[in-house]
Amino acid sequence: MTQSSEKIWGINSDKKGDKNISFFSTENNKYGVYYFDINEYGFSKLVSPVQVWSDIHNPKLLFDSGRLQSGQKHFSFEYQNSSSCYYLELSDILVLLGNCFDQTEFELFYILFDFNKYQFAILRTANFIPIELAKDEIRLDIHFRYYYDQDIKEKILKDDGKVLSLKNFEWHDIDEINKVCLLMNKNNR
Q1: What Rg value do the Cα atoms of the chain yield, rounded?
Q2: 90, 135 in Cβ contact below 8 A?
Q3: Would you state the pLDDT for residue 38?
Q4: Residue 138: how many CB atoms within 10 A of its CB?
Q5: Angstrom distance (rounded) from CA 61 to CA 3
Q6: Distance (Å, rounded) from C-alpha 53 to C-alpha 32?
Q7: What is d(CA 1, CA 32) in angstroms, rounded to the nearest whole number?
Q8: Handedness of CA 92, 18, 179, 79 (dihedral sign)
Q9: The pTM is what?
Q10: Can you tell me whether residue 6 is helix, strand or coil?
Q11: Percent of the chain surpassing pLDDT 70
Q12: CA-CA distance, 170 to 113, in Å (whole number)?
C-alpha cells in the first residue's frame, strides 16, 4: 500500500481538517484506508479509528470504525505508518494492524477484511508481514515490531516462512468488529 492523500480520492469524509490523519491506497486504487484522529496511548504507540473507502473514481465508504451500530464502542486500529496496512490483491483482502489493550494485557494482531463477503478474520502474528503467494495463501515473513530478548526472538522465529491458507481462518461479520478482543481467545493460527 502507498501513502497518499485523501484529496486525490476526493473522498467526502466529515474528518477533513483533522491534523492527525494519514491516508493509504492500494496500488490498484481499489481501496483507500483513512486513519484519522491518530492518538498516542503509550510511548511511540499510536491508535486511530479507520475509514475504508473503495474505488478512486467513485469513492464509497465501506467501513467506518468510528461509527459502529448505535450503543457500540468504536474500535481503534494500531497505527505504525507504512506497517499499518497491507493488501492481498489476488485474494482481495485488506489487512490492518489491530490491538487489544487493557490494564494487564496487550496484543498486536492483524485483522483481515473481505469486503466482498463483508467479513473479517484475525491473524495473531503481528511480528510478521503477510506475503501473498497465491489466492487464499500467505507466507509469514519476519518483521519484529518491538525489541525482544533472545529467547522470545527464537520462539517467534519458528514461524518465519510459515504458509497459511485463508480458507482455514474463522471469518466473522464486519458488524462484530467491536468484539474482536473477545474473539482473541480462539486459536486463529
Answers
A1: 16
A2: yes
A3: 85
A4: 26
A5: 18
A6: 5
A7: 9
A8: positive
A9: 0.86
A10: helix
A11: 85
A12: 12
Long-range pairs for 64-68 at CB < 8 Å and ≥24 separation?
65/177, 66/36, 66/37, 68/175, 68/177, 68/178
Domain boundaries, the chain: 2-126+167-179
Q: Could you tell me which of 182, 177, 168, 144 has the C-alpha nearest to residue 65?
A: 177
State the Cα–Cα distance between residues 141 and 154, nearest whole angstrom: 14
Q: Which of 51, 80, 53 is nearest to 65 (CA)?
A: 51
What is residue 143's DSSP assignment? -
User: Can you give the pLDDT of all 189 residues of the chain as single tens digits?
Assistant: 777 766 678 775 555 555 678 889 999 999 999 988 888 877 778 888 899 999 888 899 999 987 654 445 567 898 988 889 999 999 999 999 998 876 556 678 999 999 999 999 999 888 899 999 999 999 999 988 777 788 888 888 888 889 999 999 999 999 888 888 888 755 444
Which contiguous run of DSSP H or E holds residue 34? strand 31-35
What digits encode the pLDDT tens for the residues 89-142? 999 999 999 988 765 566 789 999 999 999 999 998 888 999 999 999 999 999
